[in-house]
Each structure stands twice: as structure tokens, then as C-alpha cells.
Amino acid sequence: MGEKPVQVDNAVRDIFFQKFCADSENKTCIDCGSKNPVWASTSFGILICLNCAGDHRNMGTHITFVRSIKLDTWNNVQLKTMELGGNLKFNRYLKQHGIPLGTNEQEKYSSRVATKYKHELHSKVIAQLQQEQKEKERELVSQSASVTNPIPTATTNTTTTTVTTPAVVETVAQTTTTTTSNNRFDSFDDESGHPSVIPVSATEAGDSSTLHYSTTKRAPAKKGIVAKKMTSDVFQQAAQPQPTTPPSTFIPITATKTINFSPL
Length: 264
Prior knowledge:
Elements: H1 10-20, E1 39-41, E2 46-48, H2 50-59, E3 66-68, H3 76-84, H4 87-96, H5 105-110, H6 112-148, E4 178-181, E5 196-200, H7 202-205, E6 211-216, H8 232-239
């Protein structure tokens, strides 16, 4: 681990050991079995009582390093060693490698098996702390990137377009192709080749109130039938409403005639 161990606050220490000592295997001293041990060996991650803590001090700090879980200050490496260790894991490891539980403390903690366990535990602690440090750095980078380049929030712009449809649509008669009239006229075709006006039914024109006359060339009319020539101006005049003349007032006139009779 490149960085030095970081000292933790006593409140963090107390919270950790309150949870750690709640484990059934950690409620007794690992060496003598005394209840509620308040000392620990940070080298092996185990809990010991006050008397056994004196024995560990006599072995030397190169074998076991002792701290009080209530009086001494702790750093992050020591707390992580206790978290990954514990009385149960140490006893199980010794048993698996042929070290009986009743072995003398000096012989037990100085053995190659205990030394190997201590080194393996320390390696796990360093690896775990490095992994946690990398995760914290990635989280800080992610937070910094989100502040520098915030993710744009998708917004929806609603545009309302109002289309005004006139109630009445005027129809403009196309004089070159189709002529519209409200009056019906007979078709005609003279010898000069003027086109005839052929009425189209209201159903075909799509309007029941207006007759459409199509300028279509048709056969000449029979002799004796003279059709009245009408231009587009006549159609437009016919379509326009004609002013009505008020009826003249009829005044009755009474005439008086005097007849004279001559005497016989």
C-alpha cells in the first residue's frame, strides 16, 4: 500500500467494535475464553482479555501488536485487519494446519502456520483497501464529470398551430376550360366553330346547387335551330344577382263622360 495508514475517528472505532463484538465467536478471549474481551491483536485480527494482552506484549511487537478497543486510537489498516480476521477464522486456520487449540501462546503465535496466516491476512487487507480506494476515485471522477458536463435534460417543445378555415369558399369559374353558372342555357354550335356548352349533372359536379357547363366540342346543331351566342361575360352577368325594381304604384283613374240626349 503506497499511502500511509489513515487514523480513524473514535466514534467510527466504537461503531465498528460494537458490531464486531456482537459475533458469538468474538464474545470471548481467543486464548483463555474469558468473556467480553476489550483488547485485540491487530497482527492476527483477534480479541483477547486484559491478562492475555500482557502475554502478547511480552512476545514482542514483531510477533503480535496489541491495542485496546476502547482506549487506543486505530487506523484504517488495523480496523480492516479485524474486519477480515476474527477469532473463528484464526482458530479454523490453525486447526486445518495441525496446530491444536491448547498449544502454548508463545509457541502458537511464533509458529510458521501463524506467521503465514498473519502475512496472508495482511495481503488481503492491503488489496481490499486499494480496491476501495480505486472505487472512491472513480466515484469522484464521475461526480466531477457530471458537474462539469451535466447531462442535458430532454425537453419537449409543443408548438400549436391554429389553422383558420373560412366558412365560405368562393368558387372562381375558369373561363378557359370550365364555366360555372346558376342558370341553365341550351347548348349551341354554329358554323364558325365556337365550342358548345354541355351541361354536366349536379351529381357529377359534386355540388347539388350549381350546374357546371363544360366547353367541349360537339357536333353541329341541326338546321333551323339558332343558338344564342354567349360569352364568358354573359355567364358572369347571369351569375350576379340582378337588382330588382320596385313595382310601380297603381293609381286608379276615374273618368267622367257626359252624354247629352237630344229631344225627340
